UniProtKB/TrEMBL annotation, chain B:
GO cellular component: nucleoplasm; perinuclear region of cytoplasm
Listed Pfam families: Trm112p (PF03966)
Swiss-Prot/TrEMBL GO biological process terms: rRNA (guanine-N7)-methylation; tRNA methylation
Location(s) in or outside the cell: Cytoplasm, Perinuclear region; Nucleus, Nucleoplasm
Full protein name: Multifunctional methyltransferase subunit TRM112-like protein
Family: Belongs to the TRM112 family.
Top-level division of the source organism's lineage: Eukaryota
Length: 584, 123
């Protein structure tokens, strides 16, 4: 992007994150988005950034992404307050100023447009985004690039102000600008980042040209905002015919909002375009439809249920802005979080969570956790990274997406898993950088010191249903784990990193195995294996290959433990451990 | 199986002291087009067993004019990097087998994926 962004372009967002992922997400937003004012809360990270929305929606450690609508100190309502009083406090505190809402919705709308614009030619399956295409009137066939929708938005100030702010803000484009570029051309250039800015301008240019064509008169004063309805492609695809005019008694100018009718474009649907007329109207018409989802935790949940909050707020918002509640198929979703720590209101920016990757077909491990593991592995250009128990390949795919100049090898003993990994790799178009091997982690067919990083989700123990099963098989599990780690250590280069994901129970056992008894000379065989004579500390690698006894524990001590992170894997927790191989 | 992978593979059959490099017996070889990333190639080269790479390339009939010894100052030599790129990432053995140079044990390659699993008695 050529233009530096001004201060006004700083937008505040928040993301939800799985337990334990917050520090990773904080690092990520700071590093990738130059985020400011980063705050961490349990399960959430708030930040401000002026980065493009396509970069923001590319965050790997986040669950969902929201545009921050309002952040406030927690509500304090005693349980004795009457429900009427409580409702009014709620409305007062949460609804607040009309302009804040309309402003936020405009920003949201604009971001939707940018998001759609930058993703039209991406591999994203259309259902993932679920946005609609707006086709300029009079255009015939759409190019094949338009597989997914885009929600186009333009906000304009009066012509005078437009000219002033032309350079700074891509939001405000004058209608006089050259509107020769077409939507089709715009879409073809989507991949180039420096075009991103230009594209947004083109969108607006294209639209202004179109508007110029359709009508001669333009409101001389006032801000025209158009935003399109926002539907999932997997939901009812009927054309919506909404116009929304909101009169705001805002400080310096009046504005009218106009909803432009859109053409939905899923894989199958071809509904005709209806273009709304853009006349500045002051009378209200059909409002924006919305739905509120609420979460109440802590002491507030004693006063309110989530439903109550939703309905109170819904009613209040309808009154304030003339919007309409639609529980089934709203254009706008508003998330309300009321906790003991704060109140948070936001609008989700993507249909599906960021954590659900568009480039992975069958997930094994959670993508967010897989990505966090690859962060820890210190992957450099030219790194050879392996996953000795790769399963469906989730870890390797996350790593390959992040690191373009490294190569990845996945090993698994199971044909079915390798098949999935192969499909996933092909789907993500990473087949040339992720290679697969059918092999056992207990007999790694790799030369020593041939690997720069090993990242592995050790599945040991997870397949066992009951605790008794686990206990009975523990010696075997432990022995296998130990052996795997030993072999991993052999193939790792000095300075190489090992990142392991284990259950808390097995982590404890592994720790015992890795730190071993205080004396490095003695070999203490783990329970269940036969006694063997303790080898010397600096046994050669050759010896290890020839007689891979489990009692060669001292050699494991050259794996230096660096960090451990606890993360949620859904129903259970996992521990991510990072080790570095040191000199023997 | 690409030659980049082959370069790391070794036989761990019991009793074998020199299981590297594995001999390639290919029955089906494919050449793909892969985006050239010079940074990747130049960083990868020092980590390779160069002799094994050239030998493998020759065995497949794809050596072209890859030198037997690594040239110095290859990082700026785009021509050279492209040749290495081709042999590392574009040539792929889809069917065939890998043979342990010492024991003769064969590891099959099917659909591009080598099967390196050992039997119980071989471990």
């Amino acid at each position: 992007m050529a233009e530096p962004r001004s201060e006004e372009d700083l937008i505040r967002y928040f993301c939800t994150a799985g337990n334990g992922m917050e520090p990773f997400l904080m690092e990520e937003v700071k590093k990738k988005l130059a985020a400011e004012d980063v705050c961490q809360l349990p399960g959430k990270v708030l930040f401000s950034s002026s980065a493009g929305i396509d970069k923001i929606s590319d965050l790997k450690a986040a669950e969902r992404l929201f545009l921050l609508l309002k952040q406030d100190s927690p509500l304090r309502i005693s349980a004795h307050t009457s429900s009427a009083k409580a409702a009014s406090v709620l409305q007062y505190r949460l609804l607040g100023d009309k302009n804040q809402w309309t402003g936020a919705v405009m920003t949201w709308s604009r971001l939707q447009g940018e998001l759609a614009g930058s993703r039209t030619t991406a591999r994203t399956p259309s259902s993932a985004l679920g946005l609609m295409i707006k086709i300029e009137e009079g255009r015939g066939s759409r190019g094949k690039e338009e597989e997914e929708g885009s929600c186009l938005v333009e906000s304009r100030k009066s012509p005078e102000e437009q000219r002033e702010e032309e350079n700074g803000n891509e939001r405000l484009k004058s209608g006089e600008q050259n509107g020769t570029r077409t939507l089709e051309k715009k879409r073809k250039r989507n991949h180039e980042e420096e075009e991103e800015e230009a594209e947004r301008k083109n969108v607006e240019k294209g639209k202004s040209a179109e508007r110029g064509r359709r009508r001669e008169e333009e409101a001389e004063t006032g801000m025209d905002v158009e935003f399109n309805s926002y539907h999932g492609t997997d939901v009812n695809q009927s054309t919506t015919d909404l116009e929304n005019n909101v009169e705001s008694s805002s400080r310096t100018m009046d504005f009218t909002e106009r909803l432009q009718n859109v053409n939905t474009c899923g894989d199958k649907d071809q509904t005709p375009l209806i273009v709304g007329k853009s006349k500045p109207e002051l009378s209200s018409s059909i409002p924006v439809s919305f739905r509120i989802s609420c979460k109440c935790t802590g002491s507030l949940s004693r006063c309110f249920s989530a439903q109550e909050v939703s309905s109170v707020m819904g009613a209040g918002l309808s009154r304030l802005l003339g919007w309409k509640v639609d529980l089934k198929n709203p254009q706008l979703e508003i998330n309300v979080y009321l906790g003991d720590d704060l109140c948070l209101l936001g609008i989700p920016l993507t249909r599906s969570p960021l954590a659900k990757r568009s480039y992975i077909k069958t997930t094994g491990l959670r993508s967010t956790v897989a990505w966090a593991m690859t962060c820890l592995a210190h992957i450099q250009p030219g790194s050879r990274v392996i996953d000795p128990m790769c399963g469906a390949g989730t870890i390797l795919i996350e790593a390959a997406q992040e690191h373009e100049a490294a190569c990845f090898l996945g090993l698994d003993i199971d044909d079915g898993q390798l098949q999935k990994a192969s499909e996933n790799t092909a789907f993500a178009e990473l087949g040339h950088r992720i290679h697969l091997l059918k092999a056992s982690s207990l007999a790694l067919p790799l030369t020593s010191s041939s690997v720069d990083a090993v990242i592995c989700d050790l599945p040991f123990g997870r397949k066992f249903g009951t605790k008794t099963d686990m206990a009975a098989n523990l010696p075997l599990i432990l022995a296998e784990m130990e052996r795997s780690v030993l072999l991993i250590k052999i193939v790792l280069c000095v300075g190489g990193t090992l990142v392991l994901l284990l259950s808390p129970q097995l982590s404890f056992l592994l720790k015992k195995v890795l730190t071993g008894p205080s004396s490095h000379q003695e070999a203490k065989p783990p329970p269940g294996t036969e006694n063997s004579p303790s080898p010397s500390v600096c046994a050669t690698k050759q010896q290890a290959k020839a007689s891979p006894q489990l009692s060669l524990l001292p050699r494991l001590s050259s794996l230096r433990h660096e960090a451990t992170f606890r993360v949620s894997l859904g129903a259970i927790d996992g521990l991510i451990h990072k080790y570095v191989k040191t000199e023997c | 199986m690409k030659l980049l992978t082959h370069n790391m593979l070794t036989s761990h059959v019991k009793g074998v002291s020199k299981g590297y490099p594995l001999l390639i017996k290919a029955t089906q070889v494919k050449v793909n087009e892969v985006d050239f990333n010079p940074k990747f190639v130049s960083r990868m080269i020092p980590k390779l067993e160069w002799g094994a790479l050239v030998q493998a390339a020759e065995g497949l009939g794809h050596r072209q004019d890859l030198p037997g010894e690594l040239v110095s100052d290859y990082e700026q030599n785009e021509d050279f990097l492209k040749k290495v790129h081709r042999i590392l990432l574009e040539v792929e053995v889809m069917e065939g087998c890998l043979q342990c140079p010492e024991s003769g044990r064969e590891f099959p390659i099917s659909k591009g994926i080598p099967n390196m699993l050992l039997n119980e008695d071989e471990v």
